[in-house]
Amino acid sequence: MVSTLAFADTTIEVQTSETKIKALESIWVTGKITDVAQYKPVKLRIIGPDGEIVFAPQVTIDNNGEFRKLLNPPIPSFKPGEYIVTASHDDTKSVAQTQFTVISQEIPRNSDIQTSESKVIVEKEQESSKEITIQAEAENGSDVIMIKGNTNFRGTDITLIVKSPVGNMITIDQVTPGIYGDFQTEIKIGGPMWKEDGMYTITANHGSSSEYKESIKVEIKDGVVVPEFGVVASLVLAISIISMIIVSTKLKLAIPFRY
After folding, report:
1. Is the pLDDT of residue 212 over 90?
2. Cα 218 to Cα 200: distance, rounded to the nearest angstrom
3. Which among 147, 6, 146, 157 is positioned nearest to 89, based on CA atoms?
4. How far apart, in whole angstroms, are the C-alpha atoms of residue 228 and residue 224?
5. What was the pLDDT predicted at 232?
């Protein structure tokens, strides 16, 4: 089901990958929007059968004006019934709408499965004393930053906030952690908000009151990513410089002085 509304020259549409899913299944929400500032996110609202907002993510727009968001079932599962999905944007009064149906599904009670999942979660929590961890991956010169991480709290979405070197807010995104707390999303670089060169701060906020936070920094120059030198690269650079100095010194000593 696709719903499209237009206001002035702006059009926005939203749709789901399925019209009917089971309570433990995930579903894709996709859409397209035109004639708006792409550095501003699309605001999705997923309203459950009881009329309450189940998810409220803000999704980035790619160069083609398209956006997508994977909705994983909340803990313990989706409630059976009709779900309404709306998509809006700050640059238009248009609101696109679609819906999907959730069919009841029995939650597995297999003791072996529960034991295995509990063991994995405990091991992940023991690996890190932090409630949430985050890392960034990007190729040199890329305009896309892949954000990956893990959280010990899986009941709510994680809010990602990107700030410029001077502290101005660039963009906001939301991502839903998986069953083991893992999450990942892509941040698209581009537009007038990314023109400043320097270290951009990406902060992951989690918890009912965003009480759990973790930040990383990514260097942006000329609108693309500049990855930091790793330890090995730094050692190679230092050894090369020292070698050049030693060779230069030996060459100077080997040349006889002429009077």
Report:
1. no
2. 5
3. 6
4. 13
5. 44
